[in-house]
Amino acid sequence: MNHLCIFDMDETLLSPDKTVSEGNLEALRKLRELDIGFSIATGRSPFLTGKYIDMLSLSLPVIACNGGMLISTDWKDVIWENPIEKTLLNSLFLYLLKEGADFVAYTSDMVYYAENSVRVMTFVNYNRTVPARRQVPLTKFSYGDLEKPLRDIVKILFYSPSPEQEAFIRGIPGLEVVSSGESFLDIMQDGSTKGNAVRALGKYLGIPVENIAVFGDNENDLSMFACGALSIAMGNSRDEIKEKARYVTGTNKESGVAQGIYKYVLPHFGFES
Questions:
Q1: Angstrom distance (rounded) from CA 43 to CA 60
Q2: How far are the Cα atoms of 49, 57, 74, 206 from residue 151, in angstroms, in the given order?
Q3: Which CATH code, of 3.40.50.1000, 3.30.390.10, 3.40.50.1860, 3.90.1640.10, is assigned to 4-81+193-268?
Q4: pTM score, two decimals?
Q5: What is the dihedral sign for C-alpha 40, 67, 197, 216?
Q6: Which of 42, 62, 82, 199 has its CA 20 to 30 A from that of 229?
Q7: Where are the domains of the chain?
C-alpha cells in the first residue's frame, strides 16, 4: 500500500441521513481493489465510529476527536493521543459547570456528559443501534469529579454555546478550538488537529503526505487541507472552506466523495479512473 485516502465523516462521507451511499461504497471498493488504503478523520469520539468501522470493513487506524487521538479499529490500541493539560482541563470543567453548559468529554475508553445534557441523547440513541461491543460507555460528570484525579480528556464538545461563551473559550491560550458543525464547539489541546493526525498516520504507515488525499467540509477539516495532502472540499461546504482546498467535488447528497475519488484522486495517484 503506497497511497491513502482520509475522509471526514459527517456531511462528507456520510449522506444527510447518516448512511453511506451506494455510490460512495462502490468508490471505496475501487480503492480497495487498487490497494489504496483509506480511513476516517472525525471530530467524533471513537465510540461513535464503530458502526461505520464495521460497515466499511476498516482496518487502518482511525483519527478521532479532531486529531486528538489515533486509535485502532477495535479501540484496544491508542497509537497516539494528545490530552488536554490537566490545569487547563480543571479550569474548563469548572467554567462549563458554572455556566450550566451542555457538554460531552471524550477519553479513550469513556464519554462523560453534563447533567441535563441534551447532546448525550445522540450517544444514547446510537447505543440502541449497535451491538454491546460497539456501545458508548457513558458517565455523568459533576462538581464531585473535580475533586478526583482527572482522566486524560482529548476533546470536550460544547453544545450550543452562546457567542459570549464561544469567544471566552476561543480566547483561552493553549487550546485548539474549532467548529465541527452547526452549534458544535470542539475544544482540544493545542496541536490536536486532523492535519497533524493525517501526518502521524502517514508516518505510522510509511506513506508520504504527497501520496495522501483528504476530503472534508468544515472548519475542523482545514488543517487537513493545509498538511500537504491532496485536498478536496465537499460541494456542500461553505465558500471559505472551498477556497482552502485544491479541488471541490459534489455534495454529500450526490455521493461527492465518489465523484472526487474518480475525478481527482485516482488520476493524481497515477491510476485510471
A1: 17
A2: 21, 31, 21, 32
A3: 3.40.50.1000
A4: 0.90
A5: positive
A6: 82
A7: 4-81+193-268, 86-189
